[in-house]
Design a protein that fits this description.
Number of strands: 21
CATH architecture of the largest domain: Sandwich
Number of domains: 2
CATH class of the largest domain: Mainly Beta
CATH topology of the largest domain: Immunoglobulin-like
Helix content: under 10%
Radius of gyration: 20 Å
Order of helices and strands: EEEEEEEEEEEHEEEEEEEEEE
Structural class: mainly beta
Strand content: over 45%
């Protein structure tokens, strides 16, 4: 039991409370078809692009979830350097019933924890992501400002096909030179959306397009890029609800959930 003078509350969360795992946590029994992840070496990985972050901007950072055919849940904790970044929002449009109740963030310490579970296993589309909306305080590489914190909360994934929890590690990927600093927001969007992108050169009339799941180009609009930081607004008009791949001159910028 927590003593009243040792517990602190932020948005209804007890700050020194880690969590309760259902079932037998010492691994001597099987609870809900899972045992503990005995070997803490990673079985699977989050993927995160180590891109450059510009100072004094709002950017999106996508954490790609491990590819699992039937997912029951996962949990993880990250440390966000409070001198470099502030978490504005956490979104997971591909996860059913993901709400603000699924994550906790303490801006003073930079502690960011999230968990999600479903009684019935969910078949997630390839490339399912957790999207962090960040306010940058200083220029930095993502790997300088964000780290997986498995000491405070073991990063684990629960898949229907596995007999025990899988330990999750973090795999850094190199950003594409042309689009590594791009962000698409808001996401989901309706009416219009914005693209934040850093360009090494001036680009006259780059073509931005939206491609649906069948590979059909459903929207195209031209803009203009200047060397450095750019914010571009796009208005698709009559576009069907659903997921679209966002491309600029053939380079993938990300995915957009359109909800008119």
């Amino acid at each position: 039991m927590f003593e009243p003078d040792t517990a602190w509350d932020i948005n209804g969360y007890c700050g020194n409370f880690m969590g309760i795992k259902v079932g037998d946590v010492n691994g001597t029994a099987i609870a809900d078809s899972y045992t503990q992840a005995d070997d803490r070496s990673p079985d699977t990985f989050f993927e995160l692009s180590d891109k450059s972050l510009l100072a004094n901007t709002v950017q999106q950072l996508a954490i790609r979830l491990p590819s699992v055919s039937a997912l029951n849940g996962f949990q993880a904790a990250f440390t966000v350097d409070p001198q470099l970044l502030e978490v504005v929002d956490v979104q997971a449009p591909m996860l059913p019933d993901f709400t603000p109740d699924n994550y906790f963030y303490d801006p003073a310490s930079g502690a960011l924890r999230f968990s999600w579970s479903q009684a019935a296993a969910q078949a997630l589309p390839f490339g399912a992501e957790i999207v962090l909306v960040l306010r940058t305080k200083a220029a930095a590489q993502v790997a300088q400002a964000l780290s997986l914190d498995s000491r405070s909360l073991p990063a684990e994934l629960y898949a229907e096909a596995e007999s025990k929890a899988q330990a999750i590690g973090l795999h850094w990927t190199a950003p594409d030179a042309a689009t590594g600093n791009a962000a698409v927001y808001p996401n989901p969007a309706s009416g219009s959306f914005w693209v934040q992108i850093t360009s090494a050169n001036n680009v006259q009339e780059p073509s931005l397009s939206l491609v649906d799941a069948l590979g059909r180009r459903c929207f195209e609009q031209r803009g203009s890029l200047q060397a450095g930081y750019n914010q571009l607004e796009f208005t698709p008009g009559h576009l069907a609800r659903g997921w679209y791949t966002v491309l600029m001159d053939g380079k993938v910028l990300g995915r957009l959930l359109w909800q008119p």
